[in-house]
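JOB MANIFEST
job_type = single_chain_structure
chain_count = 1
residues = 578
[input]
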Amino acid sequence: MKKINVCICIFLGAFFFLSLPALPGQTPGQAIKNERTQWFQDAKFGLFIHWGVYSMLGREEWVRQLCQIPLPEYQYYVDHFNPTLYNPDEWVRLAKEAGVKYIVITSKHHDGFCLFDSKYTDYDIMRSEYGKDALGMLVEACRKQQMPLGFYYSIMDWSHPDYLPRRPWETDRPTRDADFNRYMDYAINQLQELMTKYDPAILWFDGEWEHSNEDQRAKEIGEMLLKMKPNLLINDRLFKREPGFGDFGTPENFIPATGVRNPDGSPRLWEACTTMNFNGWGYNRYETEFHSASQLIRQLIEIASKGGNLLLNVGPMPDGTIQPEFSARLKRMGEWLSENGEAIYETTASVFEKLPFFGRCTVKGNKLYVHVMGWPEDKRILLPGLKTFLKKVYLLKNERTLDFRRTRRGIVISLPDRAPDPDATVVVVELQNPPEITPYEIRPTAGGRIELPVYLADLQSEMGQRAYLDHFYRVTMLTNWQNVNDYPSWEFFVEKTGTYEVQASYASMWGGKSTFAVEIDDLEIPGTTQNSPSVYFPKTFTLGTVDLKEGKHALRFKIKSIANNQALRLEKVILKPL
């Protein structure tokens, strides 16, 4: 992965061409309609595996670059790589227990070391102390357990004599005789080798950002691979992540606020690749911070509700075992999916643009699966603007029937006193016909007050998203706000021109002052965190005033500086008419 530094059948004739991914010259959005991508779209949950020589150093997959290790020194780890406890059958069993539907593993990462037996290089696992084809062993294990397997392949290669550019600190490796075109011949030979020997379901490219599509022969490689296997799936990174190219988009370590779309606005097949930990993709023996199983379950729900897949990463240890922090979280996800998988697998994106509670929705036919992640204090949820007639509403966990009533604003569903599941309780709404929705808009209350809770926000981010929504007994807040590039944004309507007092309800982190700014259209209101009674319960603070005209507006809450490792926990922004 790119490091952010502090980082079954073959159809003939015309249908063959309709089966290709959106290569240059093809219609954007075409791939999502193809039958060959349907299994991937239905799967929703994949396991990413970053494993290689770098695991021996225990400092993640970019260790050679981060620690500036000369190639001759790195060779020691290549020679002595010996994962004696590697058991690919156990890996696949763990994946199935977790509810995973496909696996993607690093066949070659940026360091150039190959986990497979390659006739084009000696820089592979067969020349290490282990001396066995680890990739081939996993292929066989996946075949036995009917688990689709894909291969990550890095175009970047820090070891090959013909790869350019060199790392700036590699002064001991001359570039005089290097030929990048010759390196691409090598890469193409290896890709053909992977296809012929192992028959992967997916080729997942990375390390593409140092060269143009033309220099990397992206179109040539894509066409070659699909000629070898027409139902192969190829990610967008072969094509430098250009919108509409490849079979699916690959947002990294963040969840796009509104999913992923093609340049023409049509839905895009996509897969968010994320880590369970916060520092690197390969094994890091010094890691101390991990997403909880609850966060990961909610992350899967969030992604599925936006029409995407989750590719969740593990970095096995150098002996070939998967560390307990990872396996425990995977098993808990599997427990949740064993009861609620119907609401994830083979579903499509939510029909609701917004839900006025901490929850998400997935859809399958005439069923809505409403994932309630924060139990409301009044034990009611509103499905806004749902016009379709309802047949039945019940809990997926135990099929308990729930009361509901239609109001002017939508369908109100009565919930039990307690949440049956602490992570996400699924409410099934059976409809008489496909759902028909009136889009939800944030508008003032009867008194003109406008409330912007975080569960109605679009969470904007870049690589390295850390902030997420969590429910603290009575309130839902945006928490773990450690990245200034994460911020919530809202669009709302003002029905009467006037002056509004801007308030923010948040819980502050004791022992430090973080700074922030509320941006309303082109106006910026600065602020500094004030102490709240509890770090788990918010207090409302006045920030300033703003004049707003009748109509549509946008508001963003951005962090400028972070004290005490977490800026604040934001519940909502309030615009109070004066």
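[summary]
DSSP finds ten helices and 25 strands in the chain.
The domain at 14-342 is CATH 3.20.20.80 (TIM Barrel).
exit_status = 0
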